[in-house]
Amino acid sequence: MLKNFVTYDGVSIPPVGLGTWQSAPNDCYNAVRWALDAGYRHIDTAFAYGNEADVGRAVRDSGLPREQVFVTTKLPSDVKDEKGTEAHLVQSLRNLRMDYVDLYLIHAPWPWSDIGKDCTQGNIAAWGAMLELQLSGLVRCCGVSNFLPSDILPLLDATGVMPAVNQIRFFVGNTQRECTFFCQENGILVEAYSPLATGNILDNGVLAQVAQRYNVTVAQLCIAYCLHKGTLPLPKSVNQQRIRQNIDVDIALSDGDVALLDGLEGIGPYRKLRS
Ligand code: A2P
């Protein structure tokens, strides 16, 4: 049985989360309902995805107590000040119709429209505001997304508090080794978004061969690989059968197969997020 992850500040996070990036609102509602029926207890959304309301409605309609579902949302990447951070969290809570979120992340170190821009001061301001929101009980746990070590260290210098989570793009062939190593060495939980490379590595021949050895699909293999690497996978699907499949991933990979998959670094699409 898969175990929950626990952040350095003691927050327990269910081991596979449903990703909802690129899930259209209605699809997202169904996906969250199916996921909760299938045993998921962790849903990842963001203000920028435009589907927070559907996530919230699906969680409510599931009948599960709120505290049994771990919900993450994210501060839009272009909001880099204290007031804006507070205001956006309030708006996200309204969208979700929830009293708190379990995890709140700075979506990216720079606006998506200006990738690579130095927003260090803005990130420090947003981070400080998030820590206040955590103290006030509106957020249980705080973190970042798409941050490199050089983006994280100034937050620590300014506030003395390390993010509990860094959610990064992580899949077989794109494991961001330096960033992952830095985070894990420093007790920051790495969450893997796009663990299936948004579907683009699922027809890889080597992966198909390895998956066959375990009698699982390539998608299940990719998700199990993330877990094996100590990262928390967030596979996205809006298909009920695939949603079910993606949580059935308690697969003990052999060291040899992990090494084989490690050697695939560079397969799949890799759009560099900065030069
Ligand atoms: P769909 O939503 O129709 O299931 P990632 O998690 O890396 O972003 O990948 C998401 C993509 O992979 C989506 O296109 C999704 O399509 C597809 N996908 C998700 N789970 C599976 C699966 N088990 N088998 C095949 N494709 C999948």
What is the secondary structure topology, with strand pairs?
Blueprint: E1 5-6, E2 12-13, E3 18-19, H1 25-38, E4 42-44, H2 52-62, E5 70-75, H3 82-96, E6 101-106, H4 120-135, E7 139-145, H5 149-159, E8 165-169, H6 177-185, E9 189-193, H7 205-214, H8 218-228, E10 232-234, H9 240-245, H10 255-262
Parallel strand pairs: 3-4, 4-5, 5-6, 6-7, 7-8, 8-9, 9-10
Antiparallel strand pairs: 1-2
Helix pairs in contact: 1-2, 2-3, 3-4, 4-5, 7-8
Structure commentary:
- There is one protein chain.
- With 275 residues, the chain is an alpha/beta fold.
- It has one domain (5-262): NADP-dependent oxidoreductase domain (TIM Barrel).
- Helices cover 40% and strands 15% of the residues.
- It has 10 helices and 10 strands.
- It has helices spanning 25-38, 52-62, 82-96, 120-135, 149-159, 177-185, 205-214, 218-228, 240-245, 255-262; strands at 5-6, 12-13, 18-19, 42-44, 70-75, 101-106, 139-145, 165-169, 189-193, 232-234.
- The strands form 2 sheets. An 8-stranded parallel sheet has the order 3-4-5-6-7-8-9-10. The chain has a two-stranded antiparallel ribbon with strand order 1-2.
- Helix 2 links the parallel strand 4 (42-44) and strand 5 (70-75).
- Helix 4 crosses helix 5 (149-159).
- The termini are far apart.
- Residues 19, 194-199, 202, 217, 219, 235-239, 242, 245-246 line the site of adenosine-2'-5'-diphosphate.
